[in-house]
């Protein structure tokens, strides 16, 4: 699906690792690094994956000698972490795509490629990376790695196993020593609700009311937290009284948003039973825009962690 040739403008090949990290990971791409010893830790760029979670992943490793696949089930200790990496909001590719100009050569075009080929028009860019400890029994040669989420989302990668005895990466941090599994899990996505919108007209602003079970300050569990994935595009203003939530979405600039997908946001914090209330959309003059429909999708991730 993805190849370097797609990033050529007929004159220049993109050589910026951050963009490769952002958009690589479709079928047939390679791990970082491309070569490893059996037993080493590798990073697999899985592409833009909204539904990749360690507790739902199954990894199939096909050895070069044709022996049966090695299968790692959900939450296997060898699946070290599933982390999303975001581009620097001040990077040329982000600034160029947001402002409609080439801050550096071809940067806007590269941003347009991400939107059109990898994120289905979403401005919420990230690269999902799976850190994996390779089995120590792998023979040398070309090895295929296929990763599938329980939601039927997949990524595929290849690498070359070279001779030698590998060791898992400890991800040592300065002054902290090796990172435990809990440290790595803390960088993964927590459970959340995704709120998105559809309709025939892109409004200027949207106001919604939500309700949920009482939070931890009111005899229940969790604490509501609204997350704006693309703060450079819109503002998310919100309040929560422990059982109900009001959210107001407005552009971060004076111009209206370009797409209803840009209004998407998340509610996290472990609250339970989030339910939709009223939805009211407005145009730039404050008049009501009819026909805006809200969708609420729960992505309940339960990570099993251990030191």
Task: Give a concise summary.
By secondary structure, the protein is mainly β. It is built from four helices and 17 strands. It starts with 16 loop residues before the first helix and ends in an 8-residue tail after the last strand.
Structure notes:
The protein has helices at 17-23, 92-99, 107-117, 181-185; strands spanning 29-37, 41-47, 57-62, 70-72, 79-85, 127-133, 141-149, 154-162, 192-198, 205-211, 225-227, 234-240, 244-251, 265-268, 275-282, 288-289, 293-299. The protein is mostly beta strands and 307 residues long. It has 2 domains: 4-86 and 126-185, Sandwich (Immunoglobulin-like); 192-299, Immunoglobulin-like. The strands form 4 sheets. It has a 5-stranded mixed sheet, with no helix packed on it. A hairpin with a 3-residue loop joins strand 12 (234-240) and strand 13. Helix 2 (92-99) packs across helix 3. The two termini are 38 Å apart.
Helix-strand blueprint:
Elements lengths: L16 H7 L5 E9 L3 E7 L9 E6 L7 E3 L6 E7 L6 H8 L7 H11 L9 E7 L7 E9 L4 E9 L18 H5 L6 E7 L6 E7 L13 E3 L6 E7 L3 E8 L13 E4 L6 E8 L5 E2 L3 E7 L8
Parallel strand pairs: 1-8
Antiparallel strand pairs: 2-6, 3-4, 3-7, 5-6, 7-8, 9-14, 9-17, 10-13, 10-15, 11-14, 12-13, 15-16
Helix pairs in contact: 2-3
Question: Any descriptors?
Answer:
five-stranded antiparallel sheet; globular; 4 helices; disordered N terminus; 2 domains; five-stranded mixed sheet; mainly beta; Immunoglobulin-like; 307 residues; 17 strands
Question: From the coordinates shown, what is the CATH architecture of the largest domain?
Answer: Sandwich
Do you know the CATH topology of the largest domain?
Answer: Immunoglobulin-like
- Please state the overall shape, judged from the principal axes of the Cα atoms: globular
Radius of gyration of CA atoms, rounded to a whole number: 22 Å
Total individual domains: 2
Helix proportion range: 10-25%
The unreliable regions are 1-21, 23-28
CATH class of the largest domain: Mainly Beta
